[in-house]
Structure formats: C-alpha cells, structure tokens
Amino acid sequence: MKIKFDRLANLLQRQYEAITQNQREIPFSLRNPNGNERVFGGNEPEFTLVLKNDQGIAALSTMDQDLIARAYLLDDIEVEGDIMKVLALRDLFSDKKGFNFAWRFIQPFLFGQVKSDKKWISKHYDIEEDFFLHFLDKKHRAYSQAVFAYDDEPLEDAETRKFEFALEAVKAKPGDRILEIGAGWGSFVEFAGKKGIQVTSLTISNRSKNFVQNIIDEQNLPCKVLLEHFQQHDPGFRYDAIVNCGVTEHLPDYAGSLKQYQRLLKPGGHLYLDASADKVKNSHGTFMNKYVFEGNGHLMVLHDYLAKAAKTPFLLKGVWDDRHNYYLTCREWAKRLDENREAI
Questions:
Q1: 178, 176, 273: which is closest to 225 by C-alpha?
Q2: Predicted confidence (pLDDT) per residue in 16-32, tens digit
Q3: Contacts of 41 (CB under 8 A, 6+ apart)
Q4: Which of 25, 57, 92 is the last residue of a domain?
Q5: Structural domain boundaries, residue 275
Q6: 330: burial class by Cβ within 10 Å (0-12, 13-18, 19+)?
Q7: Which helix (H) or strand (E) holds 28?
Q8: Which of the residues 12, 147, 164, 183 has the least number of beta carbons within 10 Å of its own beta carbon?
Q9: pTM of the complete model beyond 0.90
C-alpha cells in the first residue's frame, strides 16, 4: 500500500506544482489508511484528504473528477477541513468525459428534445419536495440565485430582492399577464401573484405542478400552473412579459427559444432571464451531469446567446454579473443541507 501511496503522492505533487504556477498556493496534506502523510505546499495544511482504503487510493490515482467525487460519496475518501478549499484546487483533476457525456446529446436525436427533457427534469424534481425545502430559503422556496446587499445578508431577504429586481426589469404592474418558465416550488408565482400579477407558470414536473397549484388555491392567487414544455406552449394570446430564472441552461437551442419568446410576447414586451454561464459550451463536468442536472443543456455562453439575439427584434437593456451572488446562494444552501443532514 505504501508503494501505491508514494506513487500517488508523486503524481499529485507534479500536478500541484503545475497549477500553482498560475494561482494562489493552498497547502494541503494527503493521508493514507496507515496514517502516512504527505504535505503539499510550504505552509501549514489548510485541509487533509484522507484515503480510507484501497478504493480511495485507486480513485484518486485516476485524477478523474467524477471517480474522485464518487469515492467521496461512498466514504472511500474523506475531507478534514474546509471543503471549499478543496474545490479551489479542482484544476488538479481532469474530467475524462466518456459515453455518459456523449449519450446526453444522442438522446434528443433519438427521442426528441421535449420527450428527453421531460425524462431528465422528472429525475431531478419528482422526488419529495421536502428534500428541497430543507435547504431553500424559508420565505420564498426560491430555487434560483439571490441578490445580496452584503455577504452575510439572510438568504430570505436576498431572494426577496431578486424577485423585486426581476419584476422591475420587466416593468410589471398589477393586472399584467406574465409567463414564468420553470415553476420550481412556486416562489415567483406566490411573490408576483400577491401583487395582483397574473402569472402563468410552466413546468414539466408533476410534483412541482401539484405543489404550486396548492399554493395558488390556498391563497386564491390570480395565477395558473401548467404541465407543459415551453416550446409547446401556445396560449392563444401574447404576454406582457416573460420571466425565466435558471431555465436557459436547459434550452440549448438559443435561436429556437428566442423565436418562441417572440411568438409569446406582445410588441414592446419585456424578457428577463438569468442563467449560469461560462465562456464555452458543455463545460460542466460528468459528475454534475450524472448526479445533479441530466440532459443536453449547458451553461449559457453569453457571447453566443447575444449573437443570436442580435438577429432578432429584441433590444438588450442590461447584463448583470451575478457570479458572487450565486456563490453566496450556494454556500447558504450547502450550510442548510449540512444542518439538516440527519433529516435528509
């Protein structure tokens, strides 16, 4: 075991030296099941990767993000210290995208985009909503990044600001008809509906649909929720505005979705959308695709999206960088997941 551990430590040392040439050094240690330890970096380790068995050593030796993350979930690898420091060194490891990655693009060709989306979304949302409610904010149940006034602001207040920002962006007023793409757990329906705005919310998850319908019925909101794919929605009238919080990642056909927005909006209507973004398509890893969001969607590539938008009648009103807000939101979700670990 020591021979295998030494080989692994030497490999990790070479990788560590390569990446720390261009980023801040984060010293850490590696410990094998026998208690042998190797320190990387010149200062006191900020975290320790504990290899609990041969499976943990084998997984880390692959230097593959997906296999290492799975080993962590299976308790073959343990982290002592701040896991955020571990994630800051993720460039140590590669993502050996294989058949699973290719299959996500093949399925829509075989079965159609709408049918594939319904299967993928169902796998994510059609579990007990209590799981989501254990980590989302208690006021809105918003499954979308908040907008923080300061880093330690309560998540509930930051989510309120986010919805106020969205409504202001589309110039919403009582009586307006707004289409929401992605009902989630009813956060936007409830927030806008209480202001007298007529929201039509789309979802392709049965659990989401039933949950949001109960909110509408209990509060007598001027809203409705439909079990319908965005690309198939045809209400017979045009909306004053459309709000899309975090669904653009699941609409990889930019030109097609922009055409649908045009069909559904009144002349002069407003579109608000936010999305996780990157500079290249299909950058999210195999682990994310397997365990979090399945499907052929990808992080929004802003320059590609704006190039498609430039060929439409839409006028760009503003772009905001919410990266830090997204980090603060995910940090709070992770904290709440940890706090509710036993219940989950």
A1: 178
A2: 888 777 767 889 999 99
A3: 16, 20, 25, 26, 27, 28
A4: 92
A5: 116-339
A6: exposed
A7: strand 28-31
A8: 164
A9: no
